[in-house]
Amino acid sequence: MIEVLLVHHLGLLRSGLAALLNEAPDMEVKDVPWSGDPGRLRSLRADVCVVDMELPESPDGGGVAELCRHMTSAQCGLLILATPGRPGLLRRAYDAQALGFVNKDATPKKLREGIRHVAAGRRYVDESLAHDLLRAADMPLTARELSVLSLAAKGATVSEIAGRLHLSRGTIRNYMSAITRKTGARNRVDAIRISQGAGWV
């Protein structure tokens, strides 16, 4: 029996997915809401954790990445639900050691297939996300730089980004300088424009 932990912020979608997965004779699903506090979920154990990387409570993706790192250290395989055209989120998931990547528009059959692969320790990539995953691998920015840039793209100041990511203002300025250099941008605004056009943030 594969124990599945389904983490999502939308109750109706979460319970619907759980019901579909529970129809499989080899799966037992526990669905829990996302509160933005991954520490709350640390006591839960599963073989596979299915998590949506695009959660509104954590626009920088940091909280989800922290949850993913914890689940990986607890020997729980990670399967990410993602939308095509968002290689930046896929890069964060890959850096968090996710094994599975399934399109949120996929069939229940494909999701169950992905869960079985991840439970067996095998990588699973939905073909509709393969191109974005390759783009993510070639992305010049690190996961931390993507977090900084994502917050900057939402209008956060250097001080606000520093507070959100628990870093110094000087460190954030250094990250922004590196982002500007790596993207070939003229300034912060241009770096945001380039990154949004590439689907990184």
What does the model show?
This protein is α/β, with parallel strands linked by helices and 201 residues long. The chain is built from 9 helices and 6 strands. It has helices at 11-22, 62-73, 87-95, 108-119, 127-138, 143-153, 158-165, 169-183, 188-198, and strands at residues 2-8, 27-33, 48-52, 77-82, 100-103, 124-125. A 6-stranded parallel sheet has the order 2-1-3-4-5-6, sandwiched between helices.
At a glance:
This protein has about 200 residues and is an alpha/beta fold. The chain has nine helices and six strands; from the N terminus they run E-H-E-E-H-E-H-E-H-E-H-H-H-H-H.
Work out the helix count: 9
Judging from the principal axes of the Cα atoms, what is the shape? elongated
User: Based on the structure, what is the oligomeric state of the protein chains?
Assistant: single chain
Strand order of the largest sheet: 2-1-3-4-5-6
Structural class: alpha/beta
β-strand percent reads: 15-25%
* Number of separate strands: 6
**Helix fraction bin:** 40-55%
Give the helices and strands as they follow along the chain.
Answer: EHEEHEHEHEHHHHH
> Using only CA atoms, what is the Rg?
17 Å
